[in-house]
Fold this protein.
Amino acid sequence: MKRIMITSLVFVMLISACSTKTTSAIPTVSITPTETSVPQPQFIQESALYSGPGNIGYTKIADLPVGDKVTALGQFGDFLKIQTQDGQEGYVLHSAMVDLPDSLPQLSTADVPWINLDMRYNFVGDGGTVTKDQIKISDFFGSGTGVGNGSFSLNSAFRICMTLRLEKNAGEYASVLLMGTPPVTEGDWWRGLIRLDIGANHQNRLQLCINDGTSEQCNYSTFVEIPTDQPFTVVFDDPQGKVMHVLDQNGQDVLKVDVTQQSGLNLSDGLFPAQTVWLGAWVNPQATLYIDSFLAEKAPSGKASLEDIPDLNDWIEDYVNAYGDKVTIDGVEMDAEALTKAIRQDSTVFTQLKKFNGKDVSVLLINGYPLAIQFLGEPWRKITGRDLVDALQIDLAMPGLYSDIADPANRDILTNANMLTLTNDLLMNVVFKDFTTEDWRSVLNDWDVIQEEFNSGTYPEDYPYYWDQADPVLLFAQAHHMKVRAQTLLCGGDCIPDSVYNGNFSKEEIKKILEFTTSVTVLRNKGKVDEWTVENEQVIADLNKVGNEMYGFWMREIGLIPATELVARTVKKLDPESNLVVVEAFLVEDQVGTQEPEFREAFFTYLDELQKRGVPFDGVDIENGVWVYNPPKADFEKIILEQITARGLYLSAPETIVVLTPNRLPFWYEPVVKTAEVTDPLKSQAEVFSQITQTYLDVGAKAIGFGDVGDKWSWMNYSGATDANPSLFDDDARPKQAYYAVMKVLYDHLP
């Protein structure tokens, strides 16, 4: 199951915690408003006031109406720093204002806030955990542990701020790693690797070590006279990392290194020659490294017009890449370079005016596919699925795994969603994995006391719960203002801990254990989860169509309906504001197997029985795992969906994947039956995704959704179907034709 950055309160707090001690690292110009001239600057467009010169990576402070008069404080690129009549300071688009003074102070990057790069989650991995206030990296294997996921690109200067603390008497060294080439996975780890270690030792000393790829040992090493448990900042003057500075908590320049000129280093192109940084960490055996107030930022460009935006080329390259590196525009074949040039020569030919929730927007539209957007009074940026579903007032869900959010490419993809499906990390076999049979016996022995705790809105905290996987995912969703749907409170198979499955408990004891796991999970995460999945694929398990003996555990021990009812009533009692859904698969495929009619009848009988008994649940999610060679038919799909909505249930986010493997059906069912002629798999995949999305919107679905973040991270890879490539994004996290097809359907549904 399975790049617009939104600055959150969490990150604002981190910025504050770090920057209050490092603001002098980047000198600021104090600008005192002069007496208001006549006429006073005012808005000719409704405009957003941002915390920095742009909307990407900055917080929106306020919406400012037409006619509002302000004091202009300075100019940075296409943006003005202003002060409103009520004393708020921030940044607005220059073109949204008239009656500006003849001359304004020209601000530099030293005078404006920088853009948060949201890189804390790069440290998620084996031994690496992220909480609201801290990053912790522990030696996971006993022989030293490295963590780090993905890379980020630079087009300007950048800096990182942090404190480092090495746990006493545990290991001698740990470091944050900034690499200018990908980590080596075979052969000598150091060969060809450009790497900067920012390290701490057991003496609380800060050490820098640079490898240029020619030696296992540091080609350059020095200690910095800054205690590591005090905030410090490392500033890179350019995106290639040719010159770096280390600043103390007072902003004093303690060390400056020009790596292109440093003796012993062969780095004429800098630490990051491709303007790409791989971020990670290393801890020695038995060591634990704590990173506090971590903040990564880059300098803003100050560009706002479509023609001037450096990222335009990236947007176009992604689009053209999806269609084989050539696209036809009005009968003319173009590559990415030619198309970008044409847009920059006359962007009006490629833009369309639209309304999003009553607001005027301009959209960059190529062959009907939306690529970029500009709200009136705001700069251009890449359009996301979230922009479209927010305008349509529906949810778009994508899966969020502990491992997924560690990769910045995945985090970029997830900006398309306004709902995060927490797939595996709150399952019973994760949260309660460390429970022993004795722990369950303790729960049962103290049942009356524990129930009183549940009734009071608390739960016993002295058991070995494991929240380390779920918490970073929930934090990520909170930071990005996403709803959360959490799976799954009742599921079979590997979801069941061995301590329960092999615990020889009675039926009544099993019911109490299920109530316990449900209650603890819900109470611990109440207010963080908007939608709970009550059960997952248990109807088909009950019919023994898939799975093994473990899948039938709940049916055998409690019964499907009673187990579902127990979970649903428990959730609604403890978290009445949340929504509840049931999940099933294979419902919309009209040719899966000979027993499908029986299965569908069983599922709808199941829904009817739940409603007859008054079981509280709100919607149905269907896991649309379909094969491009046997796609669902829109008319049949619509019939099934309308049978659900006719029962007063909403359609929650379908977990849609479209499998490309050519020689067999997806591994979960047989027989092999091909009903579609496929000559261009990627094009056909796009058509299937488009059709499914279209059908769901046509029947008034509350949500749409997808079962994978990208092909590289597809759950099917770990199940043996490595050639499935079932998602909207390829192994390099670049959008496929399917992505643009879905975006077009969403865009076309706008009024």
